[in-house]
Amino acid sequence: MKLAAIDIGSNAARLQISTVLHNDDLVSFKRVEYVRFPLRLGHDVFNYGSLTPESEARTTKLMQAYKLLMELHEVEGYMACATSAMRESSNGQEVAKRIEEVTGIKIHIIDGRKEAELINDVVVHALDDRQYLHIDVGGGSTELNVYLNREKINSKSFKIGSVRLLEGKEHKGAWRKIEDWVEDNIDSFQEVTAVGTGGNISKLFNLASKISETETTRSEIERIRDFIAGFSQEDRINKLRLNADRADVIVPAADIYISVMKWAGANKIIVPDLGLKDGIIQQVYAQVKKRK
Length: 292
Hints:
This protein is of the alpha/beta class. The chain has helices at 41-48, 53-72, 84-88, 92-103, 112-123, 162-166, 174-185, 199-207, 218-229, 233-238, 244-247, 250-264, 276-291, and strands at residues 2-8, 13-23, 26-37, 77-82, 107-109, 131-137, 142-148, 151-158, 192-197, 215-217, 268-270. 47% of the residues lie in helices and 25% in strands. The two termini are 12 Å apart.
């Protein structure tokens, strides 16, 4: 059985198709297809407050392409979710409805709490009983979650993200709000380890020296951030081989991860290869299982 997840973010839209594997009572998911396209919807919304006809047309074409891929893979269930840009757009709901009329793909515009919940459902499996601060930086928002003994203690979504910072459209006082929230919710008497999810931290982690297969240090993330910042946009693309839509947002995203880690006193960060799309796949599986 194959299932699919579509994640429409402020920077890019992703399609992941996974096969469901059964090993006795253990269920796992193996990725068989992954496509990412840089729609950059956040540019419209954070500057003008709504999605332009051009962005709507490109999103419609992309959903048509994703639908064809799902049909070729004979996907049995899927879910499409849109996050910060579409939920803040004044015409987000109308655009989603028109895209559904053309493509048949229903786009669920989810709030920050639901977004965090879907990510948390898969991230929790990478944790043990220690204190963790999960940091998920998207194009338009940052979700923070505190875990202790594999239980989520608290969570909060903030209107600050890589594209929003790039456009200079972060909400007033957003940095201070994050700092205050971290100070109020992290137990300073216990060691805290950061957990990072999102495309930018995955790229930073790939370039960094590592403690283990999934862990590195804050100082190493800082080093890589400064290394990338020393290159022009053109050289980041041509010499560092970063995608154009990654090259301009990776430094602002790094600033969020590093700042949050500093405020929390976290010197190490775990970067599991997990994200919103994996949480969506897991929810789709639960829905398909109910129908059978």
